[in-house]
Design brief:
Blueprint: E1 9-13, E2 24-29, E3 32-38, H1 45-48, E4 64-66, H2 72-75, H3 78-83, E5 89-93, H4 94-117, H5 127-135, E6 137-140, E7 146-149, E8 152-158, E9 166-172, E10 175-179, E11 202-206, H6 217-233, E12 238-241, H7 247-260, E13 268-272, H8 274-285, H9 292-299, E14 310-312, H10 316-323, E15 336-340, H11 350-357, E16 364-367, H12 376-381, E17 386-389, E18 392-395, E19 399-402, H13 412-420, E20 428-432, H14 436-450, E21 453-455, E22 461-464
Parallel strand pairs: 3-4, 4-5, 5-6, 10-11, 11-20, 12-15, 12-16, 13-14, 13-15, 16-19, 20-21
Antiparallel strand pairs: 1-2, 1-22, 2-3, 7-8, 8-9, 9-10, 17-18
Helix pairs in contact: 4-8
């Protein structure tokens, strides 16, 4: 009897399931295995323990890795994957490859420095593992169908999130599967907006802001302007914890505009992040990935990432000098804006600035990005009156401001629009990359809005696509 062999496609959910960080999915197409993203965990100690644990699959069995974008929670464990035996290719866009190189080396450096300070700290991978990872990178163009194996094709499409970010449109046999990665918010200042997909059978979608609508961008811009102007008037500092990738460049772009237009008091803006400086140089290389407005600025001969008051700090000694200034009592009484990492205040140069300025009622701390549960940034945003930095208790008296309109993540409306614009709606939606309650709420919204089955997978669960 001649029975036709049944082809099986399955997905294992191995990160960012009922949480925001550590994105990782293992797709198995009849034994051909592909990992989508391989991100670092950030947040509380229990969650971060996963970074040093063994993978829940054998890296040697994986045929390929597809990277949606170069944020640490999507790419931060790739060198570990290579270290543990991954022998395939890493497919990603060219801007993502450039930013991944910066991110991976920076992470390896931080691990080495942490281990020197604390012998208990583990080194997950080193610079040599980063070199080996980069050797496996194969860059792909947007909107070009790429053959993985017979009857398995992948297309990288603009996700509108950060420079080089893509969602993955897969055609396997007769099934169409879409991994969203992170989707962008409409109205970003620099990069191209999200592409829309025509039809999908199975959708794996992020839900970072799946239960809320961001403030209008214009409202957040005015709030930023007012906060800076008022704080300068009060002789305080403006401290902005910021992600080195996209958010810092977006802020530079806007500070330049606001000062040029006379809406904001001219104030020195320090980018105290060597990584952000390198990423800004990458942004300058890929003008074709800008939206039309930003591209026109460059074509007219202007540099969107330069203005007179902007100063990049590379040297650690200079960083310490800037951070220790007694603002409001120096001979000029000069206030400054400092944009520094890390974006969730989990480490880096921002901590020294927070120690100095959180206790000062005349200073302001502005959050322009997502703050995951378990992070110092989340504690401050949630209204804690005292926090611990470097083991010391620090009072929070500064003006705390959250600017939702600057988010690079799509909100509830953006995510629903992404599904609405599909000509053929998916038969099943898997809601990932969100705090548990937010993911559950967004899944309910998808069900009620489109009548589509929507589930929130558990960590290390598996779904077979029928």
């Amino acid at each position: 009897m001649n029975l036709e062999k049944k082809i099986m496609i399955s997905i294992r959910f191995l990160g960012a399931d009922r949480e925001v960080t550590g994105s990782c999915y293992l797709l198995d197409y009849d034994g051909f295995k592909v990992v989508v993203d391989c991100g670092l965990y950030q947040g509380d100690d229990e969650l971060e323990k996963r970074n040093s644990q063994d993978f829940l699959f054998d890296p040697q069995d994986v045929n390929a890795l597809l990277l949606t974008h170069a944020h640490l929670d999507h790419c931060g464990l790739i060198p570990k994957l290579v270290k543990h035996g991954f022998r395939g290719k890493i497919f990603l866009t060219q801007p993502t490859r450039d930013i991944f190189e910066i991110t991976a080396y920076d992470t390896a450096k931080i691990q080495k420095e942490d281990a020197m300070r604390d012998p208990q700290s583990q080194i997950i991978y080193n610079a040599g593992d980063v070199v080996n990872s980069l050797a496996k990178c194969v860059t792909v163009k947007f909107n070009e169908k790429m053959k993985m194996t017979d009857n398995f094709f992948v297309t990288f499409k603009h996700a509108g999130h950060i420079l080089g970010s893509a969602y993955l449109y897969m055609e396997i046999e007769d099934k169409k599967i879409l991994f969203s990665g992170d989707l962008g918010h409409k109205g970003q200042s620099i990069i191209k907006p999200v592409d829309y997909s025509e039809d999908v059978d199975y959708l794996i979608i992020e839900s970072t802001y799946g239960n809320r609508v961001h403030k209008p961008k214009a409202e957040s811009e005015q709030e930023l302007i007012d906060t800076v102007n008022d704080t300068v008037k009060n002789q305080g500092n403006i401290i902005i914890p910021s992600f080195a990738i996209e958010r810092t460049q977006e802020l530079i772009y806007n500070f330049k505009d606001f000062i040029k237009e006379g809406r904001m008091t001219p104030v020195n803006v320090y980018i105290d992040s060597p990584m952000a400086g390198k990423v800004t140089q990458v942004f300058s290389k890929y003008v074709n990935e800008y939206n039309n407005e930003a591209k026109d600025i460059v074509l007219k001969g202007d540099n969107p990432f330069y203005f007179e008051q902007l100063k990049f700090i590379q040297d650690a000694k200079r960083s310490k000098r800037i951070a220790s200034r007694n603002i409001g009592k120096n001979k000029k009484g000069e206030s400054i804006v400092v944009i520094a990492g890390s974006g969730m205040c989990t480490g880096g140069r921002i901590l020294t600035y927070l120690m100095r300025n959180l206790p000062l009622s005349r200073s302001s701390v502005i959050f322009a990005g997502y703050q995951a549960e378990g992070t110092l940034g989340r504690e401050i945003v949630d209204g804690e009156k005292e926090v611990y930095i470097y083991g010391k208790k620090v009072s929070v008296r500064a003006n705390i401001v959250t600017l939702g309109g600057f988010s690079a993540h799509g909100d509830k409306v953006d995510l629903l629009d992404f599904i609405s614009n599909m000509q053929k709606k998916p038969k099943k939606v898997f809601v990932c990359h969100g705090d548990e309650q937010i993911s559950l709420e967004f899944a309910d919204t998808v069900k009620s809005t489109f009548g589509i089955e929507a589930i929130v997978p558990y960590y290390n669960s598996q779904e077979v696509l029928e």
